[in-house]
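Standup notes, structure subgroup. Blocker cleared on the protoporphyrin IX containing FE input:
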Amino acid sequence: MHIDLLSPASFSNGHPHEQYRWLRENAPVYWHDEPGGRGFWAVTRFDDVRAMGRDPETFSSEPTIMIADPADGGMAFGGDHKMMLMMDPPQHTAFRRLISREFTQAPAALLRPRVEALAKQIVDAVIERGECDFVADIAGEMPSYVIAELMGIPLDDGRKLYQLTETIHSAAEAVPVGAQAAAVMEMFMYAQRVIAEKRARPADDLSSKILAAEVDGRKLDDLDFQLFFLLLVDAGGDTTRNLVAAGLLALLENPAALAQLRASVDTMLPAARDELLRWVSPVIYMRRTAKRDTEIAGQKIREGDKVVRYFGAANFDERRFDDPYRLDLTRSPNMHIAFGAGAHVCLGQHIARVEIDALLREVLMRMHDIELAQPAEWLASNFISGPKRMPVRFRPASVSAR
Ligand code: HEM
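Run returned:
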């Protein structure tokens, strides 16, 4: 079996399930060469991927969670500033605590009416047209609005920021030279304007709360804020979008499941949405770096080695999921790991579920006879999985969902 988990081509039609299956069976901790880099271990079984997330003492998120090392060999953003996603305890614990209250189930539930109204507005905008690009016009609209709402910035700006995240997440060779650095820079400059605005006029939003926060008696500075901002815009944007778009694609490919879900959307949606999360696994991997010599599934790992957790591979592990290649919208239990596991488990997962439910319900109830107008075009990325463009045709349902 030819294994290549670096080339975007391997992900150009969704997860490379044949490679994953071979790896889980034959080399669950596989040494993967890396042109221009020092190579890494690819971990593909569910139990190992989960256990690594729960052991930040051994498997560090520093200096980065991306496979490529930071260019300067140090921290991703220089000095002691970095994104929470790339911190270890106790620093990570302190930063996460600053905002975690805003992301529990209760505040997410409070967002529901607003998110449902946004879902309705998003579908209203295309429904009479009878066709649209499902990725840009529907799935991509929601997360950018929600992040804008949380951070207290204009909804239209949220949409522009979302376009920047798409550039940042693309494979380097898929975008013009320098485009990714320029996109990060633009995001930082935007965050700088938010700082000025929220310092002058603090409001009841997450931006103002982060700006007022202290860690170990030290107020967060501008760079801390910019990194929080980049993380939140980045983490909550194309992940949710890809789940909704690739989730609909999976339903279109399984018409019986789609019909079943449409017929009893209220009762089926929670389990169906979690099965779609397992199926789509929008985040392909998160890297860790071994802080000491250790072992995974009998394989010796040396201090400093890069070890990469593959979520899509873990979510199809036969050892944990019955008949994993069957889309089973009633799967129960479903302990998928699409949101990761352990210290860094997705902070936005409750909000993501609210967004996904609102959008899927609105789409399924109001857009009937949906079909692809052209084949979906996949994102050129080995990090985030999902369609980039998905032209669809549909007809408005004669009776509205509400
Ligand atoms: C379907 C949608 C989403 C998926 C699949 C997803 C997946 C993930 C994954 C895999 C991680 C890393 C977990 C680990 O290392 O074990 C993560 C972290 C994170 N996610 Fe999400 N995410 C989604 C939506 C969101 C949303 C909507 C937000 C914000 C509103 C968000 C905010 C974050 C943050 C802040 C972290 C970093 C947590 C930390 O470092 O402690 N995510 N997410």
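Discussed briefly. The longest strand covers residues 285-290.
Next: hand off to the docking folks.
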